[in-house]
Amino acid sequence: MTEQLHADESAPVAAPPQRRPKNRKAQIAATAAEAFSERGYHATGIDDIAARLGISGPALYRHFPNKYALFLHAVTSLADALITATDEAERDTSLDAESQLRQALTELIRTTIDNRRTGGLYRWEGRYLQPEDRARLREKIDLVNQRIIDPLSELRPELPEPDAVMLSAAALSVIGSITAHRAALPVKRIESLLLVACWSVLQCELPAMCEASSSEAEASVHSGMTMTSKREVLLHESVSLFHQRGYHEVSIEEIAAAAGMNASGVYRHFTSKSELLAAAFHRASDRLTVAVTSALAESETPETALARLVEVYVDLSFKQSELMSVYFAEIGNLPKDQRTALRNIQRLNVEEWAHLLGEVRSDLAPAEARFLVHAAFGLVVDIGRLVRFSTNAGAQRRVQRLMLATLLGSQH
User: Fold this and answer.
1) Which range (60-64, 166-170, 209-213, 386-390) has the least confidence?
2) Domain containing residue 99: CATH number
3) Does 9 score more than 80 pLDDT?
4) 154-160, long-range: CB within 8 Å, 24+ apart, which pairs?
5) Is residue 343 domain-resident?
6) How far is CA 347 from CA 200, 285, 342, 350, in A?
7) Tell me, what's the pLDDT at 223?
8) How many domains does the chain have?
9) Which residues span the domain enclosing 107?
10) What is the model's pLDDT at position 136?
């Protein structure tokens, strides 16, 4: 009996059966959302997502039939989370308009912080959705906007509806800006900082829109002299195509055709499509650096310098609106070394603005100033898209006013 006991003890013990976690589908969805947010829809494969989870591709397909289904789930889940965040404020009939608005903003901020690594998905990658899915996503985002617009209109009954829509979009842009960068602050401080910035934006007095002058109307049709440099033509046409259809949907052959040459002609100037994209980004960065240097040289005080920088930034962004949109949507498609180089340039630009903002607002720590600068930059693109980067001077003045409201808060 003793010998049998020892024999049993020395026998190999079978490993317990592996069981799939009950929340595997949620794990897959969260991991996929991070991957899509970091690398974009086209650059992320099912095997990439599976590898992050330590599972096989077939195991992932048990929960989602294909990559598109997984992408759709990730994007719509984020929009649903924003709706859920505003549900309580919407249902609580005891709240006055100001309390309802503050509660909705606070919950939207908290939800965005919780989803910071994935929250930018619906802003930029949603264009890869099929038309009917994109329309449903738009309905969800419109509902979130309406839950800001309704109490805002009650608080400010003098606001025309288009102005209330713009202010709501600006506040949501400020909140969503934290998904586009990785600057660090304690969560409570992020909440407080964004809430103050949102409130400043929503209280903003927007300049009146003006009738487009004949010169502005003509400028929208005639964009200047015809470019003769093949390199410049290629940069221009590639950005235009990337903006219209997305980086991965455009081929070198199509870029060449738009520029009036064959594909081999492109390679005399650029070795790859990614080099074309990087060159366009560097060109925009160089122009911005020159404009910033000029604006600072023309200003005698930090306050006037900041106002001048805002004016120059909005003007330049509207003039190269397609490139601005492509930058935010497509920088993740660059090779890592090129992406890192451009991120470093952007970081230095943010630091320049944050330093100047700190001189104007002594109440801000450097990290807080960085958050507000990122929010102001993102707002230019989001509201610019809302007004279709209109050549109307009134539209640009409105964006300038919203930028200053974001940066200066209650001091505005």
Assistant:
1) 209-213
2) 1.10.357.10
3) no
4) 154/97, 155/97, 155/98, 155/101
5) yes
6) 25, 11, 9, 5
7) 46
8) 3
9) 76-202
10) 93
